[in-house]
Amino acid sequence: MPQTLPYGSWPSPLTPEAVAQSSPRLDGARIVGDEVWWGESVPSEGGRVAVRRRLADGSVETVLPAPANARSSVHEYGGGAWTASDDGELFYVEKSDQRVYALTPGEAPRALTPAGGDVRHGGLSWQHGTLLAVRETHGTERIPARAIVRIPLDGSPSEVLAEGSAFLAHPALSADGRHLAWIAWNHPDLPWDATILRVADVVTGAVRDVAGGDRRAPLQPVWIGDELLYADDPTGRWNLFRRSLDGAPEPVAPADADTGGPVWDLGTRWFAATPDGRIIAVRTNGGDEIVEIAPSGIRPVEVPVVAGASIDDVRGSRVLVSGSDPQGRTTLWSLDLDTGTVSSVTGGDPFGVEWMPIARSLTTEGPHGPVHAFAYPPTNPDVVAPDDERPPYVVLVHGGPTSHVGPAPSAKTAFFTSRGIGVLDVNYGGSTGYGRAYRERLLGQWGVVDVDDVAAAASALASAGLADPDRLAIAGGSAGGWTVLAAVTNTDVFSAGISRYGVGDARALAEDTHDFEARYLDGLIGPLPEAEAVYIERSPLSHPERFRVPLLILQGSEDRVVPPSQAEAIRDALAAHGVAHAYVLYEGEGHGFRRAETVTDSLRRELGFLGAVFGFDTPGITPLALD
Prior knowledge:
The protein is of the alpha+beta class.
């Protein structure tokens, strides 16, 4: 019989150490002959990305052993840091020097690109016997030079195939090697604002624009014979189109859902085509689903993915799909479109489904329109709460802000819910996954719409009697950290805040941030210097007297996106105004925590902070001392 204990104090087997080890990030996958290869972060090895393979007999081997680390820093966020040839040669970007290496399993790696200078590579792909990459060359200018290059396997100099814009992504080479397609964009746009789909004749060098323009963001070209398949959003939803080079675009199975998303990194793929012309695609409308589009019609594919879905590779009728299922299990699945068989390649259930909360989809009206969120109630098979108590909740604010959360609990979510602390994941206005209009709600309104939306979602949960209105905390990282700080200074909804590498001064972010996001704030707040007064008014650090509730601030020492100076300024403001707080700087961590020891320590501190602020015991974890 379950025991009765106050919310927040429930004993749980989901220790910080277990959570840190249970959540490796999958980083692409390929079918190589009869084998499946995939990239996987290893928290116990400093978060390095290894490449592993499952052999035909079912055994698993590591192709890229320590200390090698397949990590790109193109656009700072990287992506596409490895690929493989059809005969089993690995190509990868080494994090430490950003050079591209080739590795035959069991042999020593050999460098394919030269040493010297700040030259980075990412978006690697092996297409028709050719190794392609996005190359980023840093010099004395703030804006790096970027190009799509062909990398010879004999170590000779790379050949530039495309350039001429600030940013490039998604190179696609036609089967005959004659044409190269890619997407391009320039400041001040981001790749979800406006991009151009371009095609070059590799022989003549002639380039033409075939899709895109103002408030259009075509993505991910794929060749089907001599036609292009790509995603575009003329209707406000990313849907599929196909066209010949000399023809008009034709819609492919339009839907009120998105096949596409924000190009934060160079590795995610939302669709692919089989040799016989069938299309396998992700559709997102809050949650994800996988569909097959064929001449005979459209059918859902029975892969249990609801969040973070990616179509990683196709060979014949075999498809690799990665993502998370409703129980939060991040998995790489292999499926056969002909037979309908689905099998798990890697990933799975680290804790047991009884410990994983099931998402409740919530939509509430806010000041700017509907707000979408997913609620995860306290979930523990061994404990119940007193009948007269309502649970504390942590309201999670994703980063980006142009990101998205689906209806799949993370291990961190279960860490809290198993202890009697509910979690509310909010897709505030500005999030992807609901179309362009919802995404553009945030234009010029960062620090307003996001704050209003998370406050409305949290208040609705409390008004429905599902959460204790006096024990609502808000937590987020990066852009989500900005919303945390703005919410605790501009609303009275939240009683505590947790900011991970959050933005406190928008002007400092505009000055310090890297090139990929250098003009991001033009759209989110306004161009400088014209909008400087708005930057000052919106920035939480401009109003230190408004800090009133306890805050936990977590920061990486090597963060180049939001440097430690921002976190330290927040700490100093809290100390000057006598607000209870704790500040933790993690040496060697960047923008996002990857090391197992960092994840473990941050979880302990977050739970200890909530226990100290909300007044409940945290078995096995000492309440956090606040300054």
